[in-house]
Design goal:
Elements: E1 36-41, H1 51-61, E2 66-71, E3 77-81, H2 87-91, E4 96-101, E5 104-107, H3 128-131, H4 133-140, E6 148-153, E7 174-179, H5 204-213, E8 227-232, E9 239-241, H6 242-254, E10 259-262, E11 264-267, H7 274-284, E12 288-292, E13 305-306, E14 314-320, E15 323-333, E16 336-343, H8 346-349, E17 357-361, E18 383-387, H9 393-402, E19 407-411, E20 431-434, H10 436-446, E21 451-463, E22 470-471, E23 489-492, E24 496-499, E25 507-510, H11 513-530, H12 536-545, E26 551-552, E27 556-557, H13 560-563, H14 570-575, E28 578-580, E29 584-587, E30 597-606, E31 612-620, E32 623-627, E33 633-640, E34 645-648, E35 652-655, E36 660-669, E37 680-689, E38 698-705, E39 718-719, E40 722-723, E41 726-729, E42 740-742, E43 750-754, E44 760-769, E45 776-788, E46 801-804, E47 808-811, E48 814-820, E49 824-833, E50 842-845, E51 849-851
Parallel strand pairs: 6-8, 6-10, 7-8, 10-12, 12-14, 14-23, 17-18, 18-19, 19-20, 29-38, 42-51
Antiparallel strand pairs: 1-3, 1-4, 2-3, 5-9, 5-11, 11-13, 14-22, 15-16, 15-21, 16-20, 17-21, 24-25, 26-27, 28-30, 30-36, 31-35, 31-37, 32-33, 34-36, 37-38, 39-40, 41-43, 43-46, 44-45, 44-49, 47-48, 49-50, 49-51
The structure holds 2-acetamido-2-deoxy-beta-D-glucopyranose (5 copies).
Length: 853
């Protein structure tokens, strides 16, 4: 869910774009709720004084507003309703530290759909064999007992046997909980809170809670004895808003939760959000906030969701594991049965019933191929076999749906496993993944006779043929726009078998960074249980330093922007007593002197009772760019072997038991970094125990990127053959030339479509009279559009932004007085600021248009 009605949400939506002549204006509006803001007051030390002073300033300026929620514990401020046009006045008040428009936040994917389903049995979590959690359980008997995990999600079916069937009663593991929204909440309407966070219509929260702490004896999450607080922030449709998330964070804190597990977010890349401010406050109070980076892997760099993008969050990306559970599909041709694995979105993985339905090849109606990239022959109720390649998976799915298919089976176009078919959440079509050899064998058989397919309702273990964890393609890339290492680490996220609400089949598979997040939350619970005395900082370091790097064979590891510290190693994290600095941000956005060495000091803490001797080495990682050599956005990222070297003052050091402090310095040679290349360069410091001494390898990522604004134009010149930015009529979408008359009724609103190639800090919109286009006549907004994510054009990622203007303006002299722009001839001026530090903006002036009231 990315498109949200903006200024005039009630307008009738126009037809989808046709050919290259128009753009669909109903899509890709900025993900902001109109007329709703979070305000943070300046605290007393900053000269402000909270709500009373803020209210006084609002009153003095004559700005009407309504408070919908006060925040007092983790941020001094409020959620308010106020006309969008007043935001610039508010931002200028002495007592206002920051204002943020309210945004909609979605799950990393949708819920289970709520079909009545045949129950699946409890099964063991396969992931524990790869993360060291299984070994911790058997050797150290760690279960998370006494540690409180707060889960901010869609609620929990606490009647499920894996949660004891109880809620807040004596002896129950679920000690806290609240529903902030009610079933009908859709992000826009008024929440209807109550005391019962039951999850029966979504399922996401129940799956997440199971991974962190479910326990029925057979199925066991990471911390099966942990105590839970359940904070429901989304209704049945899986959308939350900033306000309810902030409320839930404050409540979980007040309830004494040690860990907050947040498997939701808004794609952004920026870290300047109110959720991030609360994450910082929680960190200051010694709490852990574990968050999912998002499923925008196709969006390349800077795609981390908020709140994961906040500096102090533990941001989790996802990996595929070699073994996973799946349902399977049996295809029978004559006497031959081919068994293939089930794949796709969670919803599609709700137990599926297909018995002896036709199994047919996707045949293009235009003749020939079986890619299903265009219309295919009718296949009513059938499983359709299509070849991978040539177009997006969702295109194939839509074409199969249009042909009446009941399911889609995709065979690989190259040898090996293509992974799971995983397409747009809005497309409700079950899918299967088939090896190339099997696909070709089936085609040969189909040539001889008809075939049928049946789904085996049992779940069995499949292998993807890899020998260890590998990156999940959907896991979002970092770093954050300001260069923080994000994700911090990776955990199992694909095809994770966990609990579902009883009415959805009790157990089932879901995929996403949503699933990787609670895995890490549970691991933090085990860490807290085993090291009660350690500081928050130490636990972060233990968790991060001990991760295992994923390699992009042969010579490089995957980029730090993709894997952060690497893949979770819970066993090593718990069983080491040695930590080093977390990471180095080597070269942030503006590298001015590229020839020098940048030196950093390494901090260590030997909490154990043994002296530790480590060797130091540097491990290069793949350099990546979100742009091709012509500075055009690309997905997946372009790679390069240019290396950012690290050198050490000392190559071997003995750290005395119980000592803490600084001991080594590391220098990063930025010489290879060239501004115009816009590459993210990264690498790892690897500390490995001297032969014959105890200890694990500890790795510390570092990352830097060169970035000169002029290298990449902020505004893309075109999209789909249409020159951008352009002025269109809302609902029509055809680029306009000079002279269009707008009446501000019906669909007749000026709309600007633009596509940005780098993250944009702020968009400023002003109006000039057409006769004097450089003299500002009135302002539309200064502070409404902040922190925009860059656009992309792969998958469901927004390829452009649609900005609809409702004709309301104000003048500088009197910012709180709003008026409808009078009839006359005008141009609209847009400025796109890449940063908050005064860099010159990209500008766009629309063709002349006429306002006629
Ligand atoms: C504004 O908020 C930030 C983050 O909470 C804080 O660091 C800063 O001191 C505040 N500024 C004032 C003037 O209160
Ligand atoms: C916010 O706090 C003020 C002052 O304490 C109070 O008057 C108001 O009712 C509160 N609003 C809400 C929505 O809680
Ligand atoms: C297979 O399809 C994928 C996805 O479209 C594509 O990237 C790849 O190049 C194709 N491989 C071959 C051998 O055509
Ligand atoms: C599918 O094939 C497997 C292996 O041949 C067999 O055990 C199973 O019963 C079949 N299931 C269905 C529903 O045909
Ligand atoms: C630790 O690092 C050393 C030196 O690079 C390497 O040889 C060894 O394989 C690493 N051990 C593990 C478990 O990764």
């Amino acid at each position: 869910m990315r498109s949200v009605g903006l200024t005039i949400a009630a307008l009738a939506l126009a037809a989808v774009s046709v050919g290259a002549q128009t753009l669909d204006t109903s899509l890709y509006q900025l993900n902001i709720l109109p007329n709703n803001y979070i305000v943070q007051y300046n605290d007393a030390s900053g000269g402000g004084g909270g709500l009373d002073q803020f209210a006084a300033e609002m009153q003095a300026a004559g700005i009407p507003f309504t408070i919908t929620k006060n925040f007092t514990l983790l941020l001094k401020g409020a959620s308010i309703q106020v006309d969008d046009k007043h935001v610039d006045s508010m931002a200028s008040f002495n007592n206002v530290n920051a204002t943020w428009p309210l945004r909609l936040t979605s799950l990393s994917h949708d819920g289970a759909g709520g079909d009545k389903a045949t129950p699946l049995p409890p099964l063991k979590m396969l992931a524990h064999d790869y993360t060291g959690v299984g070994r911790l359980r058997s050797e150290k008997k760690l279960t998370g007992k006494g540690v409180k995990i707060g889960i901010i999600d869609s609620g929990l079916d606490y009647k499920h046997r894996a949660f004891g069937g109880c809620f807040k009663t004596a002896g129950c593991r679920i000690t806290h909980g609240y529903d902030f929204v009610g079933d009908q909440f859709d992000g826009h309407n008024t929440p209807v809170p109550d005391d019962d966070p039951m999850d029966t219509c979504n399922g996401h929260g129940t799956h997440v809670a199971g991974i962190a702490a479910g326990n029925d004896g057979v199925f066991q999450g990471v911390a099966p004895d942990a105590t839970l607080g359940i904070y429901r922030v989304m209704g049945c449709n899986g959308l939350a808003s900033t306000t309810v998330i902030l409320e839930a964070m404050e409540r979980a804190f007040a309830d004494g939760m040690d860990i907050l597990s947040i498997s939701l977010g808004t794609p952004s890349g920026w870290s300047e959000y109110p959720e991030s401010r609360m994450v910082s406050a929680l960190y200051g109070f010694g709490k852990y906030v574990v968050t999912g980076v998002g499923n925008d892997g196709a969006d390349t760099l800077w795609a981390v969701s908020s709140p994961a993008s906040g500096a102090e969050s533990i941001a989790v990306g996802a990996v595929d594991l070699p073994n996973f559970y799946s349902q399977s599909l049996n295809v029978t041709v004559g006497k031959t049965v081919t068994v293939v694995k089930r794949s796709g979105q969670q919803r599609d993985l709700a137990p599926l019933k297909l018995v002896n339905v036709p199994f047919v090849r996707a045949v293009a109606t235009s003749g020939g191929d079986d890619y299903a990239c265009g219309p295919i022959n009718a296949a009513k109720g059938a499983v359709v076999l299509a070849q991978r390649g040539n177009c997006a998976l969702q295109d194939k799915a839509v074409n199969a749906l249009n042909a009446g298919a009941a399911a889609l089976a995709i065979y690989n176009n190259e040898s090996g496993d293509s992974g799971l078919v995983f397409y747009d959440q809005a497309i409700n079509l079950p899918s299967f993944s088939i090896l190339k050899v099997d696909g070709e064998a089936l085609i040969a058989q189909l040539a001889k006779g008809s075939a049928t397919a049946s789904v085996d309702t049992r779940v069995s273990t499949f292998s993807n043929g890899k020998d260890g964890p590998t990156r999940a393609w959907y896991s979002s890339w970092g770093p954050s726009v300001n260069g923080d290492v994000k994700p911090d680490l990776l955990a199992p996220g694909t095809n994770i078998y966990s609990t579902l609400p009883t009415n959805q089949g009790e157990y089932g598979l879901q995929s996403g960074t949503s699933m990787a997040t609670p895995y890490v939350s549970g691991t933090v619970a085990l860490l807290i249980e085993s090291k009660r005395a350690a500081s928050v900082d130490s636990l972060y370091n233990l968790l991060f330093n001990t991760c295992t790097l994923l390699w992009n064979r042969p010579s490089r590891t995957e980029s730090v922007a993709l894997q952060g510290n690497g893949f979770l190693n819970a066993y090593n994290a718990v069983t080491t007593d040695f930590t080093v600095s977390r990471y180095y941000n080597v070269a942030s956005k503006y590298v001015s002197d590229l020839s020098k060495l940048i030196s950093k000091t390494m901090y260590f803490d030997n909490m154990g009772s043994k002296d530790m001797t480590y060797n130091f080495e540097f491990i290069p990682s793949l350099s990546v760019s979100a742009y091709d050599k012509d500075n055009v956005m690309v997905s997946p990222p372009r790679t390069s072997l240019v290396t950012l070297y690290a050198r050490f003052m000392l190559d071997t050091i003995t750290f005395k038991a119980g000592n803490t402090g600084t001991k080594n310095s590391v220098s990063f040679d930025t010489t290879p970094i060239r501004e115009n290349d816009l590459m993210v360069h990264s690498g790892y410091v690897n500390m490995y125990p001297k032969a014959g001494t105890p200890g694990y390898n500890l790795t510390i990522p570092y990352l830097g990127y060169a970035f000169r604004q002029a290298a990449i134009p902020i505004l893309a010149p075109s999209y789909s053959g249409i020159n951008l930015p352009c002025l269109v009529q809302y609902g029509v979408g055809m680029p306009l030339k000079n002279g269009k008359v707008f009446t501000f009724t019906g669909n007749d609103y000026p709309t600007v479509i633009f596509r940005i190639q780098i993250p944009v800090y702020r968009v400023r919109v002003r109006i000039a009279k057409a006769a004097t286009p450089t003299n500002i006549h009135a302002t539309v907004t200064e502070n409404h559009f902040l922190y925009l994510q860059k656009n992309m054009d792969s998958g469901d990622v927004q390829p452009y932004y649609t900005y609809v203007w409702d004709g309301v303006v104000y003048s500088y002299a009197q910012p709180s007085k709003l008026f409808n722009l009078a009839s006359g001839q005008y141009v609209m001026l847009l400025e796109f600021y890449p940063t908050s530090s005064g860099d010159s903006p990209a500008t766009y002036t629309t063709p002349m248009f006429e306002v006629k009231r």
